[in-house]
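Write out the bound-state structure for (Z)-L-Arabinonhydroximo-1,4-lactone.
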Amino acid sequence: MRVTSVSETGTTFSNPVIPGFYPDPSICRAGDDYYLACSSFEYFPGVPILHSRDLVHWTQIGNALDRPSQLRLPPDTASSGGIYAPTLRHHDGRFWLIVTNVSGDGNLLFTATDPGGPWSEPIRLPGVHGIDPDIAWDDDGTCWCTTAGVGQIRLDPHTGETFGTRRQLWSGAPGAKAPEAPHLYRIGDYWYLLIAEGGTERGHGVSIARGRTPTGPFEPCPANPILTHRGADHPIQNTGHADLVQGPDGSWWMVLLGVRPGGGTPGWHVLGRETYLVPVEWVDGWPVVGDLSPVLPAPSWPLQPPAAPPQHRDDFDAPEPAVQWISLRQRPAEDCTTKQRPGWLTLRARGGSLDDADVTFMGRRQQHRSCRVRTLVDAAAGQGDGGLAVRLDESHHYSVEVTSGQVRVRARIGPLNTVVASRPTPPGPVVLRVETTPVATVNDPRSGPDSVSLGFEEPDGTFVELASLDGRYLSTEVAGGFTGRVFGMYATAGTVHFDWFDYEPLED
Ligand code: 6LW
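---
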């Protein structure tokens, strides 16, 4: 079997197809529609669900875990704890989502008839051990759950009951670390077991094995890893954690995570792990992955950009927060509401600051390396303190905030916590601004990936920059973990009102 999947039309599409902190993609197809789920870690709501008709243009349509009963993240949930690596499947007229909450509830299964929600209450899976659970159904309806390691157990997906003991299936290449992210599929005459290995850093890769039954034995592909950028001079790094899907024309495609490091040595990535798309051909019963690049030839089918451009501005006129908004560990309606002051978002402080796990925060992912974020904040009306932050975790964030009659910029980098600059607050509500600018060309091996400019606008719109900070300190290579930058509004004392929030991509 040999299927060629890319057209010769001369048109192209851009990777990543889902920029920003959308890692560990899992994809499924239902008729003409494609759905994709990602990890969400310490953020609430969790597990973003995206929709596409063409695999290239994606729109977030919801978050599967948007009720506290589905997503319990205790206040002490560590950053990069919480929700890991989902698998999303369409089977028997329903959507199935299996995921791990590493901060308490373990492996959980959810179902929905509409992937945009609502999703069911969790079915607990006490007998499923290991992260990165996958579910697959045999022809006779038997359901197999495969987890990192790589091992497998039989599961009743309706009750969560498991049968027998976990069987070790495959460990990937001898000596390679972290065989994980398994996905099991029946394609043609074989069952294929796709995994990631080498760890989610520069050594990441994708490997595959095949067998005649879903339980093996599995024969590794002689060409493994079928995709890796380890050791390669390539703008996309850390490539791995993949899932396979068939396009509308019968061609095959892979979604996977990758990162875009910037700056000198060792390279810093600041947007988290992003979702990429790459074509796959089948040769002698093995998948051969095409070259993964920032720009690829468009698929052979007509592309279907969304009717409306992505909404980057929110005037807080809707009764509920839009799907892109995420908070930290919880989002009680009384702390985060558009109902108290119509047309404004009101944040009520719970006592914590950006340095704490339990802070009142509502933000969105940074999706472009160059972007400008602005929000109009009224702290005086609610006698509050709060502002606009760019955050990687509790120990790594920059912020511009209004507090005690001052606009001040604060930088938290590991154990260092400093007010970098401050000025008296102009009268009335004030526009706070954060802007990121990538380093243009890297001649210096020590240069960082970008600069982060923070300040406020005078009433006539003039930007007053209070600080321009090196972006490397808000990168995964410095902070560690699995997430990416998030821009957000927050309150640390009293009540703070935000009239609007505007995210403007400047390039990418
Ligand atoms: C996830 C693992 C991985 O569980 O990173 O890149 C972990 N792969 O499969 C967290 O996202």
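---
The longest helix spans residues 476-479.
Residues 23-24, 39, 84-85, 131-132, 180-181, 196, 200, 240-241, 257, 482 surround (Z)-L-Arabinonhydroximo-1,4-lactone (CB under 6 Å).
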